[in-house]
Amino acid sequence: xxxxxxxxxxxxxxxxxxxxxxxxxxxxxxxxxxxxxxxxxxxxxxxxxxxxxxxxxxxxxxxxxxxxxxxxxxxxxxxxxxxxxxxxxxxxxxxxxxxxxxxxxxxxxxxxxxxxxxxxxxxxxxxxxxxxxxxxxxxxxxxxxxxxxxxxxxxxxxxxxxxxxxxxxxxxxxxxxxxxxxxxxxxxxxxxxxxxxxxxxxxxxxxxxxxxxxxxxxxxxxxxxxxxxxxxxxxxxxxxxxxxxxxxxxxxxxxxxxxxxxxxxxxxxxxxxxxxxxxxxxxxxxxxxxxxxxxxxxxxxxxxxxxxxxxxxxxxxxxxxxxxxxxxxxxxxxxxxxxxxxxxxxxxxxxxxxxxxxxxxxxxxxxxxxxxxxxxxxxxxxxxxxxxxxxxxxxxxxxxxxxxxxxxxxxxxxxxxxxxxxxxxxxxxxxxxxxxxxxxxxxxxxxxxxxxxxxxxxxxxxxxxxxxxxxxxxxxxxxxxxxxxxxxxxxxxxxxxxxxxxxxxxxxxxxxxxxxxx
Amino acid sequence: xxxxxxxxxxxxxxxxxxxxxxxxxxxxxxxxxxxxxxxxxxxxxxxxxxxxxxxxxxxxxxxxxxxxxxxxxxxxxxxxxxxxxxxxxxxxxxxxxxxxxxxxxxxxxxxxxxxxxxxxxxxxxxxxxxxxxxxxxxxxxxxxxxxxxxxxxxxxxxxxxxxxxxxxxxxxxxxxxxxxxxxxxxxxxxxxxxxxxxxxxxxxxxxxxxxxxxxxxxxxxxxxxxxxxxxxxxxxxxxxxxxxxxxxxxxxxxxxxxxxxxxxxxxxxxxxxxxxxxxxxxxxxxxxxxxxxxxxxxxxxxxxxxxxxxxxxxxxxxxxxxxxxxxxxxxxxxxxxxxxxxxxxxxxxxxxxxx
Lengths: 518, 355
Known about the structure:
Strand content of chain A: 5-15%
Radius of gyration of chain B: 22 Å
Strand order of the largest sheet of chain A: 7-8-6-11-12-13
Number of helices of chain B: 8
Strand content of chain B: 35-45%
Oligomer: heterodimer
């Protein structure tokens, strides 16, 4: 007799994240779905061997201080497992129980959050208006457990079904989950968006404890963006939830010990996704699913640590997906070095040459709406995947509204040269901004470069003749690397205009990382 | 009396969504279309102006107390509420959903949410969706290549060909005149390609006979300006519903397509149980409620009028599709109050087979 499988999907993930205005809300919106999935799967975790996805291991179900997987959601939004008698009813009951318990926990948290906010109204005169507003919104949600439960039941889109696949379980069940996600319900009359209120008051909540996040405040964008400067900042209270972002930068600008650069007001948002993972999973046999899922879990959890160490904050790390915020430059290096570390970790953990990872990197001003910056990162990832995979698409969205975007394949020689060039330029202590003068004249000498780009000797002579500092002091090595980089781009790109555009964009990004005007 | 009303933007336009600058954002993007409640607001104001009820001075606009009762006959007396059972609209009998007209005056409308795909069957509530291009099984990845479009009977247009983005990056200056670095804003409005205009059908009662002629109007919170052309006895005003229906292809199964944003006050379970499968999207709508409180002036109670945003209503978006709909679903959608101003409009496209 053929096996029957149950597929389950939960959402609406993207819609929930789109409503987030701050990092804490984004993180909690993402964690919500991981949390719900974990609690549903908890009832079935003894079936580990017959679970197709996600990875199941006991450590994933540890909470609070015992948690090994910390700081982010590690469960994806889909669950596929082999059905036994009674599983569908068991699943329905479990979903109802999870929602009911979640509503209870949210209700309890609202009481605590109100009490804390009321104390702040009395104690924190500097931020009185902020806490008064909090108190008002929290008073409206007191003692409403059944309303919260009803709201969650309508808002959350949880679909599941059973099917006996004729061929491969993934090939047949995964598309059905895609189809079911098209059927989106809604809450017709929304007097209070309980989920929004919860996401806006996430500090000190059971979510933070559950994910074992230390400290009260989930990092704000200015906190993440200025990671490089934290050792010089005396003011411990500077990044409190109640202090608005503008004030944070006013304080930093007034501090003479700190040299605030342009990129300290920009944030990198990265979506990372394994390439061709779905195709590989479609070839796996029953006893191969869990070992492969565990490799993916190993990759995402290791990447979580790498990102944290760099100074970033992971929002989500499930399946083969990563979503994180990071400073453009930290005291541990720059963003492209971080991406390189993650790529290397992927190769180390997955050990399959036919698989790779692509990145969508969006760098945007800290005030740029979070949902738009997130979308830019998602779109960049799709572009990378559409450009042949194993690539990074980077989009720098300037405060002025202008933006530049380029895609580089990781396996291309120019990408390694780009990484080396970036490192070399950031290490130059001189503030002359030599690259700036070259960058501005790329357009002016566009036709010249198109003509000589493939010839390293001609390019070198071009530098010698046009830039005073090209072969002096700290710039010698940099100029050599730049010449190689130009020549490599022109060798890779058949279209000369595309070569110029890629050169222009990538150098602009390097300048930006240095802190120069762009 | 039915009128075809054309709205041609005089410049770029902006229709606000739920998130605008007021929510501490520095970025706002216009919707393609205004909400039907915004159309109603514009029409009510225009009826008051054209029929001599609105006093417009530099210090404000109002209806004189002496004209108040008569004015209410023309435009009704209260703000429109999405979940009200009945609102008096005065001389307005019905407003159709907003559509577009191209250079040939052909009716253009947004494709339904099932563009590029079709339902091949439903078994045990499991849908079998296929791609029209090759009959292959639907996946989210493949569907990303499908792009939403405007369609007329003869043509189809990409949205960015018709709605041209116009992004304005601005600065605000402080009291000293210096640029406030932290007060940049970015606003994306749209311009309509010059060969297109917005349009809708308006039905006014015969008595009282209201004056309603072509004019220049403002629409939306940003007061975007439009040239309004009012055409009496235009053939499109009688046949637009049939024209709309022709835009959607017949397929295997009956399907109910929402022609406008639709409010259904019921649980998701009941709504989705009333059809075999659905492809839906949602939109959040808030209206402006006018409120009145009292204050004392020389021992006398005086009314004080103010406006506040309503609660959030979540509507199924125009273009949502329900396959094999039942009468129960139709009953849930039927809502005279909303249909009178162009919400909750739908069409059932009969399929080639049922069951």
